[in-house]
Amino acid sequence: MKTRITELFGIQHPIIQGGMHFVGLAEMAAAVSNAGGLGIITGLTQPTPEALAKEIAKCNKMTDKPFGVNLTFLPGFANPPYPEYIKAIIDGGVRIVETAGRSPEAYMPAMKEAGIKVIHKCTSVRHSLKAERIGCDAVSVDGFECGGHPGEDDIPNMILLPRAAEELKIPFVASGGMGTASQLVAALALGADGINMGTRFIATKEAPVHENVKKALIAASELDTRLIMRPLRNTERVLTNPAVEKIVEIEREKGASLGIEDIRELVGGVYPRVMQEGDMDAGAWSCGMVAGLIHDVPTCKELIDRMMSEAETIIRKRLEGLLAA
Ligand SMILES: Cc1cc2nc3c(=O)[nH]c(=O)nc-3n(C[C@H](O)[C@H](O)[C@H](O)COP(=O)(O)O)c2cc1C
Q1: Which SUPFAM superfamilies match (predicted)?
Q2: Considering the domain boundaries, does residue 189 fall inside one?
Q3: Does residue 179 sit within a domain?
């Protein structure tokens, strides 16, 4: 399948693996890229730019296909040395960056000068248009269904994607809730040039996370995610567990007066404990509603091949078959 996204990134299939904290390591990115998609290393999971340089070098040894690095621009209070992370990306020979969080505007000149293609992930049409204006090559449009931070507008992809198609000139991929061939075909029908998946890629053989995480995704239904931190305007979709239910309760009690200190121990430092140690109740961790559609743990290649071949069948048989001769 050839789309503006496969052309832009030089990949075989229009499927991207979004940056994921403590999941997007070299093993994950290389497995997706080797399967013909676009794998992405999560920059800030590496504690320093030097550590990121090592992770990129490791990935370069594991694949000769293109892969990218995610740079998440965090809200005000945390300020990692972004210029040094960008230098590690450029020096490592990576030419694709997925940005997310705040606008990447300040860093665009440095990235463009190095020939980097930038795909900005955002949750609204207005932020997508801003990304287009500042020179991003593509956007990843993240609907309300998504695992992680869906923003504050709560627009699901059935509306957000065709709205993006109405307004954008640059290519975009559908992100949030994606996990099956029928959704890929639907996203293409709605105007996207491919899809971005997060949660679905965690339940793959190569995902470098504890088996408990993969089991939890298979056990979960579409009803098992919760939205937290809305009063802080930093809404996050997470898989429910006793710690998350506690957060929801605290948020209900505190209402608009909620501060980050009220829930800090339930949201801070959780990722290594969940992803590496398999302590599923350690706190809140991002997970999308697509958990309800995850029923197995294939390799990345099995997953992508299956999706592409089923997509072809849906297009050729089901959709074409609906048209009167
Ligand atoms: C466990 C987990 C961690 C994530 N960490 C990040 C991150 O550090 N930076 C980022 O830009 N997006 C992050 N995301 C969001 C994904 O890149 C992607 O946009 C999202 O998962 C898409 O929705 P889906 O999970 O429904 O596929 C994370 C998602 C998950 C599930």
Answers
A1: Inosine monophosphate dehydrogenase (IMPDH)
A2: yes
A3: yes
